Each structure stands twice: as C-alpha cells, then as structure tokens.
Amino acid sequence: MKIFPALLLRLLHPIHIYRLWVLQRTRKGVNRVYNDPQLKLYHRLLPGDHLHYGYFDDPHISPVDISLGMIYRAQERYAELLADLVVHPQQRVLDVGCGMGGLLGVLNKRGIEALGLTPDKNQAQHIRKNYPNKLLECKFEDMEVDENAAQFGTVITSESLQYLDLKRALPLINQILVKEGRWIACDYFREGAAAEKSGHYWDYFVRQLEEHGFKIVMQQNITPHILPTIAFAHHWSAHVIIPMIEFGEEKLLVKAPGWHYMFKNFLESMYEKLNKNLETVDPEQFAAKKKYLLMVIERA
Ligand SMILES: C[S@@+](CC[C@H](N)C(=O)[O-])C[C@H]1O[C@@H](n2cnc3c(N)ncnc32)[C@H](O)[C@@H]1O
In CATH, which superfamily holds the domain spanning 33-300? Predict the structure, then answer.
C-alpha cells in the first residue's frame, strides 16, 4: 500500500486512535542524564570515543577543509593536553563524566590508573565492553563518599563540569582528592545571555570555587581552538542537512500537494526548531557569549 493512504487509514481507524491515546498518556519520561540520545548520536557520527569539541592547533582552519578524521585527531589532542596536566601519575585519576572512554584510553597508554564515572547506561555498556578500567555507574553527585575519601591524586572533568550541580559536586571533589591533589577542568562557561543555556555562568562558578575553598592555579582560554568543530557542525547543518530537508519538502509539494498542505504547520515548526538549533552551533555567537577554558584547580 502507498504510504499516504496507509497513514490516513491508521489515523482514522478507531483502534489506532485508541492506541495512540494510550501510548501518549502512559509514556515514561526517561531522565536524560541516564540515557542521553544527543551524546549517543555524537558517538555514532564521530570516529573515536570522545564526546568533546576537541582542540585544533590551527584555529583559522576553514570548516569546508575539515574532515571527520581531523575532528578525531583534534579530540585526541585535547585529551593529550589534559593528560599532560596530571602531575601525580602514580596516584589514581577519576574521570568524572567519562563519556565513551576516550580519555581513559589516553591515560591507560601512559600507565596511569584511571577510573571512569558515568550515569549514562549506554556509555557504561560501551566502556565495560571496550576498556579494562574500573567504572562507577552513577551521577557524580551520588558517588559513595566514605569509600572514596582521599583516594584520587587527580579529578578530571572533561566537558562534564557543565552538567554538575556545583553545590553538591565541589564538596565531593574536596573530599575525594588527596592532600596535594588537583582538579583538571576543561569546559565552556556563559558570560552573557547566550542563545543556548548550557554551561555554568562564569561569575557564579568563580564564587562557588571561593565558597568551597578552591583556587584556579592555571587557566588557558582555548576558545579559538575549539571553534573549528562548532564551525564544522554549523556548516554541515546549514549547507547540507537543512537543504536536504528543504529538498524533501519540495518533492512532497510536487508529488503530494494535499499531504504537503496537511503537514504545513508541522513543517513550519520543524524549520523553526532547526533554525534555533543552528544558532547554538553558530561559532560567532559562541565566541561572543561563551568562553572555553582549560584549568587546573587546587585547594586554596
Ligand atoms: C559532553 S560529555 C563529555 C564526555 C567525556 N568527558 C569526553 O570528554 O568525551 C558529558 C559527560 O558528562 C556525563 N554527565 C552528565 N551528567 C553527569 C553527572 N551528574 N555526573 C557525572 N557525569 C555526568 C555525561 O553522561 C557524559 O559522559
């Protein structure tokens, strides 16, 4: 049967209408922290086990010249930069929000004992299958404190700090670090009214550090070096994905104008959403409203 008559039949049939109503009413909201479809998609699109923006040595590279292989290498470079800051390699490292385990792999190659922590079940499954590292499967804020007190020479948050509740996470970092321990944090922060709501506000973060007895001992603004990845995402969305969707709509208009009329409102709201998402990967907007920092933080 052709697709549109089949759809119409389904929409009009009382059994299907009832089923639609029941499924919508009983749908369960899964907390994104335990199963993040966006991070899962990034892993399917990118060749390696990293879920961060990467570090391009050449910040002026054009998005049209970037390949997926280059993004992978930029991500490896970013992980190496973080690993270089581990100054107690004989002591254990905790990779908080370890994603798919890319940084664990880099630390393993250097002979550093590293533990991963993630609340996400897909990530946990992937790590158990591919990495020998011990893994804690929970939100960092829910980590068992007593058995982990003063157990880590280094805590790393690689683009995961933005997800943490600072009031709960900072006291925990303080408790699990050894006396001379350090926290390596690499993430972006909001400085103004950013279009996208991710990232802690920088002023708030600094106040929280002070309140919980931490100080920043090294800080490097790496924004220009992560922007090529954002520019790449923007280029592909604006010049490949959206034109392909528009092409599909034009085909629908020619082949099935009635159905195009029926779906007009849906298509309009979809374009609105797509354009809003495009703003979140606009490199100029990112640079104007956010900053991406690599930091070493210690007890004051
Ligand atoms: C953008 S990914 C970065 C992953 C990895 N660190 C990397 O650099 O590839 C953010 C990570 O933080 C994790 N995360 C989110 N909320 C968290 C929480 N409350 N506690 C610990 N990890 C969390 C996500 O599951 C994911 O692993």
Answer: Vaccinia Virus protein VP39 (3.40.50.150)
